[in-house]
Structure formats: C-alpha cells, structure tokens
From TrEMBL, chain A:
Keywords: DNA-binding, Transcription, Transcription regulation
Organism lineage string: Bacteria, Pseudomonadati, Pseudomonadota, Alphaproteobacteria, Sphingomonadales
SUPFAM superfamilies: C-terminal effector domain of the bipartite response regulators (SSF46894), Pheromone-binding domain of LuxR-like quorum-sensing transcription factors (SSF75516)
Name under which the protein is recorded: LuxR family transcriptional regulator
Annotated organism of origin: Sphingopyxis witflariensis
GO biological process per UniProt: regulation of DNA-templated transcription
TrEMBL record, chain B:
Catalyzed reactions per annotation: a fatty acyl-[ACP] + S-adenosyl-L-methionine = an N-acyl-L-homoserine lactone + S-methyl-5'-thioadenosine + holo-[ACP] + H(+)
The family this protein is said to belong to: Belongs to the autoinducer synthase family.
PROSITE patterns linked: AUTOINDUCER_SYNTH_2 (PS51187)
Protein's recorded name: Acyl-homoserine-lactone synthase
Gene3D superfamilies in the record: 3.40.630.30
GO MF entry, a single one: N-acyl homoserine lactone synthase activity
Top-tier EC class: transferase
E.C. number: 2.3.1.184
Species name: Sphingopyxis witflariensis
Amino acid sequence: MIDVKHFHLTEELAHEISGAGQQEQLFAALANAAERMGFDHFALAFDRRGGEAASMLVHNYPEAWAKIYIGLDLSATDPIRRAGERAVTGFAWRNVEHYIPLSRSDRQLMNVARASGVGDGFTVPRHLPGEAMGSCSFAVGPHTDLPCHMLNVAEIIGAIAIARARDFMGAAAPRPRSVLTERQRECVLWSARGKTAGEIADILGISQETVVRHLKMARDRYSVHCRSMLILCALYDGLIGFSDVYDWWRPD
Amino acid sequence: MTDQSTRAQAAPGDAALRAMFAARKQVFIDLLKWDLPALDGRFELDQFDNPHARYLILLDPDDLRHRASARLLPTTAPHLLGDLYPHLCPDGAPSGEAVWEISRFCLDPAQSAAERLDARNQLVSALADHALHNGIREYVGIAEARWFAKISGFGWSCRALGPALPGSAGPILAFGIRIDADTLPGLQRTGTWTPLGLKLEGGELAP
C-alpha cells in the first residue's frame, strides 16, 4: 500500500535538500530530514577523485563518535563505505555482511561506534568509478530500532542529498576528446582482457611491434609506467567499461 | 577537507587522544601481544572508550609526543572488572561514585628506560592527584601478577581483591588502591611521587 503521507514527506524533504544554497542549509535540511524520518543522526560524505581530489563531510554524529571517526581519520577503512561500493541500493548496517566480509577490526569499529552512541544505520551509496564516492547515512542510537517503514523515503532522500553534495563539490569536467587514439584504445581494451601483445596483434591484424608501440604511446599520454595503471586510467576515463572487460576474465 | 562540523578537528585535546590510541596499539598489541583488534591498523580502542571514559595523558612539553597515559572508567557505568572480570573478586567488585577503574596504563615504548620510569612515576602521581581533587576514594583495576607486585610497591595502599587466576597471558588479579590523606606521603616515602614535569592533558570523548 502506498502511503500518501510518505509521498508528501519525501517531496517536502527533497525540496528542502535540493534547494539548500550553502552547506549550513544542507546541514539543517538533513538534520530535519533525519528527525522527521525517525533517525537520530545523519552523515553525508562525498569524496571527489580525478582532477583535484576533495572531500566533504556533513554530519551530526554524537561528539564522542565524531572525535573517534573524524579525529582518528577512520573513514578510509570504514566497512560501511566499503560495502557501499558493492551495493546498488541503501542497506541497513546490520546487513553489511551481505555485501562484504567483516574483519575483527571492522567489528570492533562498529562496537566502538555503538558505545559512542551510534547503533544501527541505513546507508545510501553512490559510486561513480573514477569520479567520486558518495554516501548518505541515517543512524539511530544503540537502543533504538531503525524506522523500517521509512527506509524507502531514506533511500530517495539520501540519493538527493548525494546529488546536492556533488553540486557543491563539482565534478571533474569530462574530457572533450579521448586521450587515446582509437587504435591505442583497442590495444588497451584487449590488454585489459588479458591478451598479450602477440595475441592482440593477431586479433587486430597488425604486427606485434605496432601493438607494443601503441601501448607505449598510450602510457606516455597518461604519464604512467605500467600496463595495469594504463588500464585503470582508461577505465576511470570511461574509454573502456567494466562490462567490456568483465566477461573475459570472470572467474567461474 | 571540508568538514561541516569542524569542532572535532579543532579541539585541542584530540591530538593527545590520537597519540594515546596510537601508543596503546604499539604497547598492547605490538609489544605485549594482547589479542585485541586495531582500528585501521593504527589505533587500539574498545567499547569502553566511550563518553564515560576520562583519560590522563602525559605529553612531552617540547614536542607534545605521547609519554604515558591511563584510562579511567566510573564503576557506576560499564567497566572491565564489573562487566568482563567479576570472577576476580569473590566478594564482589567494589563500585560506587567514589570508585573508578584504571585500565590501559600505557608507557610509550619510544623512550629510554630512565624516561619511562620518570613518566611512570609522574603518571602514578597524576593519578593520585586526580583522585584527591575529584572525590575518588578508591581505584580498582586488573593486572598481571608481575605488574601487581610493582604497583603494590609504589607506596600507596594497594591490595589484591581476590586470588590470581589464569589469564590469556599468565595469571591476572584484581586490585584496589585506597586514596586518602596518607596516599601522597606514602608515594613520597618510596620516591615514587614525582611532581609534574610533563604536560598533563585530561582527555575525554564526552562533549
């Protein structure tokens, strides 16, 4: 059953978040959204890569947890953020093991968070490989249950908040033209599919020396020194796609 | 890094807390091989590092390096002796407003033996002083039997609260230290009392 009240709430909160002109307004809008949905805290993180890297974190976590999580700079090893790179929708933290295996350190981090006032949470992830990783989390205290009836609202609100964060941070402008020539790109693509220079030569019907030269010039254009970095650059630039490569080496 | 809530980064005590958690990883995990997970491979924290905890942290006054630290937990909230090791106290673990637990007594490994001894004595003196100024009448804690022999020789009134029982790395026991008007003279008599030369930071995770 569709709850009309939820629809109106979603529209209202979304409007407030996408209209936030400054980070202070975004903070206020998210704090309000978290409260209206029945959460205690929120955290909106956006890490831009490519070009000039920059990060943004807007949150109202309890101060003890902020001192630990931000003061000790633990976000890079946060299992929730790692899981976010593997999830297509928002997920509850208690289900994080559906996405990634947890180490003892990961569990300890979650224990420490709980002791500092952050229990369960719901994280909406957005991963743009090569450009950015964004996440919007809504959390409750250690003795509170997630407001399960609000998770679809949180899913939409979180996504809109990440989009707003991306507006603030700016995205690296797409390169107007490919860094690589079409022939170079083809060589990189087959290389990413695990083919040797000799095999690529056979596939493309050119000499092995020519393949080696194309790959060398491609490395020079990205100023990298090895084939694996070259492949990553082409992937991050969108010259080749994950799906172009995946079927060629997918383990059984 | 843009950070909306910059209070956490700007607070002066945070560098000291950071240094202490890193030193605890080096001491308890790397050196003493306690079976504890490290956060991000760099810091040792557990569920008792929460807003109830207070920390006494001694820093080198010149370069603010960590020299020694200890964690204090109120026995009216979750703590090690009451929650994890109550079996060490056959008569029940002491608790109350005036009873605090000392844990993670940590001497930084990156100092000479003489510096370590000096830092240890200053930390013991600071603990006694902290108790006298904050209405704490008894400290409790858990120690390996060897370490207990040292603690009980500092000159304060320190007693075992039960028999030594096997722990993961040798026998451990619970101890209690009474703090009263005789504490400072006692520490002075043995030469443990050392006036503060290091910089004392009173850390807290609570707002």
